[in-house]
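Input chain follows. Return structure tokens only.
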Amino acid sequence: MPPELPDTDLPLVVVDIDGVVADVTHRLHLLDRRPRRWEEFFNAAADDPDLPEGVALVTELPAGHALCWLTGRPERNRRITEQWLAHHGMPDRPLLMRADQDHRPARQAKRDHLRRLRRTHRIALVVDDDPAVIAMLTEDGLPHLLADWLPYSPRLHQAQERHGRT
């Protein structure tokens, strides 16, 4: 079932989760081994500390703006993701996620979501920590903010770009 999106009259702020509001560093070691431990990696998201800079950005959106989450996490992790957001005092919906069998690079999966969103909503800002996603946003002429408050991890980059998992 597609998530219910905010009112089309409100400018939309689209925000990534991992590396923006959730600190994933404690679970990156699960991607070091072969085979990679993807299910453990995603299940450990329940224990992610929040990132105060990202939480402030989300909880202090300007009046008259709506929020939409856009994550590379697979759909099968919807419940754990919604619970984490609610536990940290953030709205848990609307939440756009990667299809479970979609292993394209994050920038490609997110581009498809954003192109669909643009048909019905005015996107005021997209916040992401992935430089490849930021480059795609620049190419597509979307206003964006690089979340640079957590050092970007080469391991996370590999998961996003080569393995299409987050």
